[in-house]
Design brief:
Number of helices: 2
CATH superfamily: Protein of unknown function (DUF1491)
Structural class: alpha+beta
Radius of gyration: 13 Å
CATH class: Alpha Beta
Number of domains: 1
Helix content: 25-40%
Largest sheet: 5 strands, mixed
Distance between the termini: 12 Å
Number of strands: 5
Order of helices and strands: HEEEEHE
Strand order of the largest sheet: 1-5-2-3-4
């Protein structure tokens, strides 16, 4: 079992990694600094977006990033609003990537 980083530390590191890759990113909802869950919205700048979150894989005891929604951007925004209603500690990061690149599949983002 690996130790979890405080949410604000993870978010800061992820934003820095995106900046170094030239991918614009913004915190659009600031959650709990310590234990807030994180959603990542990837807007492809063509009216569509995808939404990612970490989910437990009980077979491997890992928390991989999983795409939970994709489609027209207004639908993704609605999903975010609904999730925010369930979880007041939720962080939401929005990235702008025409190619859909999120860097979530790279090592070191666990």
């Amino acid at each position: 079992m690996s130790a979890r980083l405080a949410a604000h530390v993870w978010v800061g590191a992820y934003l820095r990694r995106l900046a170094l890759a030239g991918i614009p990113a913004y915190v659009i909802r600031h959650g709990d600094d310590t234990a807030g869950a994180v959603l990542v919205k990837c807007a492809t700048l063509d009216g569509h977006a995808a939404l990612w979150r970490r989910e437990w894989d009980f077979e491997t005891d890992l928390r991989p990033w999983t795409q939970i929604a994709g489609g027209p951007e207004p639908e993704i925004d609605h999903t975010i609003r609904r999730q925010s209603g369930f979880d007041p500690d939720l962080w939401v990061i929005e990235i702008e990537s025409r190619s859909g690149e999120t860097l979530l599949d790279e090592g070191g983002l666990t």
